[in-house]
UniProtKB/TrEMBL annotation:
This is Amidase domain-containing protein. Residues 36-454 form the Amidase domain. The lineage of its organism: Bacteria, Pseudomonadati, Pseudomonadota, Betaproteobacteria, Burkholderiales. One of its GO terms (molecular function) is catalytic activity. It comes from Bordetella genomosp. 10.
Amino acid sequence: MNDTHVNDTHMNDIHWMSAADLGRAYRAGTLTPEVVVDRLLERIARFDGAINAFVSVDAEQARAQARAATRDMAMGIWRSPLHGVPVGIKDLIDIAGQVTSCHSRLMLDRVATRDATVVTRLRDAGAILLGKLALHEFAIGGPSDDAAYPPARNPWDTRHQTGGSSSGSGAAVAAGFVPLALGTDTGGSIRNPAGHCGVAGLKPTYGAVSRHGVFPLCFTLDHVGPMARCVEDLALAMNVLAAHDPADPGSAPDPARDHLSEMDAGLAGLRFGIVRHFHEHDARASDEVINAIDRCGETLARAGARVTDVRLPPLGHFTMAQRVIFHSESWAVHAQWLRTRPADYSYIARRKLMVGAFLGAGDYVQAERWRKQLIEATDQALQDVDVLVVANSFESASALGNEAEFTRTYSRHARSPFNLTGHPALALMCGLSANGLPLSVQFVGRSGADPVLLRAGAGFERHSDWSRSHPPMPFPQAA
């Protein structure tokens, strides 16, 4: 057990409470949304100068929403389990009347005229929007000092990066600024910062959550999903977010709706398959990560799950197909600006986006053929097990300001296979590195079976030493 693990005394700290905790406190009458929002805004004002999680905070509107939620509750009006829960929004998701900057100088004057579908659904549920969160530029850049805003810093050690591209989302939840945040995930951009910041992050089944009103990166691979302190909160968020949206051509016709349905079923009887060759042979992870994944398997087995090893096609096959599709489609989105305003991109974003200029139609067609084959192979593996256990990042977060180390480590992961295949993937903390940074694991489920995946995650949390851990205070290097 580590000394940053949440215990009963921490539950009295509003900033470490989960969305579910807040909902229970509201119903018990021990807290109000006004009190919670005021406390979180105070915390953001005090600490975010060291973290850079937010690019904008709409304190006036947040307080107005909190007052309205408090009045509703006093009259017995309960809109949803997220009623009165503060939420942060990644700044490539539209909020009407606010700039959607995508963390880029190219977008600083782009004011959204209407809410993204996911924002509308949060508003209808009574959630409180605190502000817009930092990201890697256009969800493809890196922790760049030459982008529109400074990079988010890891609350576990502010000398280190958060992972991305949903960098501010991971940092804001880990820092106790919000209990819930929205991110996007095209090659792991929810799961990477969730893992590096020690929080829970879900890339849902492809099409389960609308992308309408979200600035695109790669139409075939883009997902929207929640990041939170615990799996229960992810399920609460998915019950609000998951729905068919005719405005999104990729929207699933009938996504799972009750994500809490299996949460209490436990691990007994679930079948887990560890995809060991991804992180031991196809690309060797650090010993710390390998040992952490081994301990995950042992924890699952002790809790009554059946744990075996399974094989998928080599990690490189997934990576190659994903990169061709990713770079081809992101080039299509950005080609005009790259030709006319290349200097307005940060160096890392420009370098990555230009890769697509060198790919042809034949490359794309071949990658799509591979994608279909890899979907079939993953579906086949998931006939024999309920959940795959996969390493997330192969190393802990690299230091900020070291571009060579960032470049070396950032591509060392096993996340992009499940953007390519569309299967739901959940990132959870499963340890600490020797230098005190989070390590993480992925659970991957069958397409459309997000509730079963969340059951697996909730069961793991109940038996894990790392559930709802948070950084020591004051934030290391932030004092």
